[in-house]
From TrEMBL:
InterPro entries given in the database record: ESCRT_assembly_dom, Vps28, VPS28_C, VPS28_C_sf, VPS28_N, VPS28_N_sf
Function of the molecule: Component of the ESCRT-I complex (endosomal sorting complex required for transport I), a regulator of vesicular trafficking process.
Assigned protein family: Belongs to the VPS28 family.
Protein name stated in the entry: Vacuolar protein sorting-associated protein 28
Length: 215
């Protein structure tokens, strides 16, 4: 006969310290996704300002990346994790895939184009293109450089209308969906170089008219 189950006894998900740590980590990841979804919705509804949203979103994205390293093989990808636990948080899922706050993705709080910003964004372009020409292909090599480039783009008030910027955001989403050690294919890398070079040319063409309007 099987051992009777006491309805007053707490159900345990784990039997060892390692299992306990695993479920604690998964619960933390679950909480980060829920918090991020609430934050995204609050920002869209103007319940919080961009100044409040940006650092909070950046912190949650950073915590998410840290937790992914801890959960390892238990979470092969975020889509499966959310399906497994029946999480309906599309706003959070989109932000996790983009990897940067909405203020960077959509350039909602951009200011005037200063010489310093132009110089920094130009340097980001050059650094990224040099990395590609040196045959850097892995996500952990390219992602930090592309993220810095996209963040620099967001400072310019007209950037949301630039075709090159939207392509860079798309590539950022692509890299976000890869594991750190995964590499772009030869075809992908050639397309990325092509897109970056065109974005670089468009960047300077667009600034030609923008500089004249800077006070």
């Amino acid at each position: 006969m099987s051992t009777p189950i006491s309805l007053d006894e707490e159900v345990r998900l784990y039997n060892t310290n390692a299992e306990r740590e695993k479920y604690t980590t998964l619960a933390t990841l679950f909480g980060i996704i829920v918090a991020l979804d609430y934050l995204e919705r609050a920002y869209v509804r103007d319940s919080i300002t961009a100044a409040e949203y940006s650092p909070a979103c950046t912190r949650l994205l950073s915590q998410y990346k840290t937790m992914l390293k801890l959960v390892g093989a238990d979470v092969p990808n975020i889509d499966d994790f959310m399906k497994r636990y029946r999480m309906d948080h599309p706003a959070a899922l989109h932000r996790l895939k983009v990897g940067v706050p909405a203020t960077v993705e959509h350039s909602s709080e951009a200011g005037p184009e200063t010489g310093k910003w132009i110089a920094e964004t130009t340097q980001s372009f050059i650094t990224f293109m040099d990395g590609l020409r040196l045959r850097m292909r892995a996500k952990d090599q390219l992602h930090p450089m592309l993220q810095e480039l996209v963040t620099g783009y967001a400072r310019f008030k007209g950037s949301k209308d630039w075709e090159g910027r939207s392509k860079m955001v798309s590539w950022l989403i692509t890299l976000n969906g890869m594991k750190a050690s995964e590499e772009l294919t030869e075809e992908q890398s050639r397309q990325l170089i092509f897109d970056v070079e065109h974005a670089y040319a468009e960047f300077f063409r667009s600034l030609g008219g923008a500089k004249d309007s800077v006070p």
